């Protein structure tokens, strides 16, 4: 089968390979991939900025059809259309696993990071990590379930959002746009912040229904804070870009005793920022790491109740053998979500 693999550490070293189709264990399903989205972490892997087990098939945002199943799998049938959580293996014994906080297990192995992922014809997944999808949900939109679950985790499980709260979101990429849509559905007063090169993404965000967008290179953030908050600062700020500068700006524009949620993944560590702002303003700085089972359940519920058409999020779909073009497009800052289609 075809598989897009990171073969060695460093910049590049990614190739489309022919490998054997994996064998199914008793508690697993083999999923024929329909669509798989390019994530920022996949781009970090291409650039050699994110440590992964090597060699490794990349990709973790996907939708597919159950092709084979293990002997002990009863909840899924051949032909079922499913998505899978990215957690493949955990210890199941630590305090976090006992609360289904699998994203925090020290022994966690994830699809596309420690075990082979979804940029392939087939991907293996644990049956109890899979979720059925409503028939009316288009498969392309279903490929957004993983980033949506990450946003649900940040918005609904890491903080509390009150109606009419003034909230800023840095980074108009797929995560930032999805997160802003979730916040708006909770009746928050949301401003999505980008820079000049994000003009097309900000326009797409407005098309999706995000009412307030802002270019921080055209107008100062100080003016934004004055206009939107009477200079008090935003109640909460979500940093979704993984930019050092954006984290610093988040601390600057949040109000005293406000909350900053770090959702974006940084390409390099350690991260420099002004600790005096955190102390003097009594800011709560909260990390949000991927998602957990409850995030997926809530994401499916949100899709059913919010009734927001997410299809404009998908700006390109390319065959897997055009992965280089797809990654170039994903890195140019003009697209939102790009999907790869194995066949």
UniProtKB/TrEMBL annotation:
Needed co-factor(s): Zn(2+)
Top-level taxon of origin: Bacteria
Alphabetized Pfam families for the sequence: ADH_N (PF08240), ADH_zinc_N (PF00107)
Keyword Methyltransferase: no
Enoyl reductase (ER) domain segment(s): 10-340
Entry keyword GTP-binding: no
SMART domains per UniProt: PKS_ER (SM00829)
GO molecular function, one term: oxidoreductase activity
Family matches, as CDD domains: Zn_ADH4 (cd08258)
Keywords: Metal-binding, Oxidoreductase, Zinc
Family of this protein: Belongs to the zinc-containing alcohol dehydrogenase family.
Entry protein name: Chlorophyll synthesis pathway protein BchC
Native species: Enterococcus raffinosus ATCC 49464
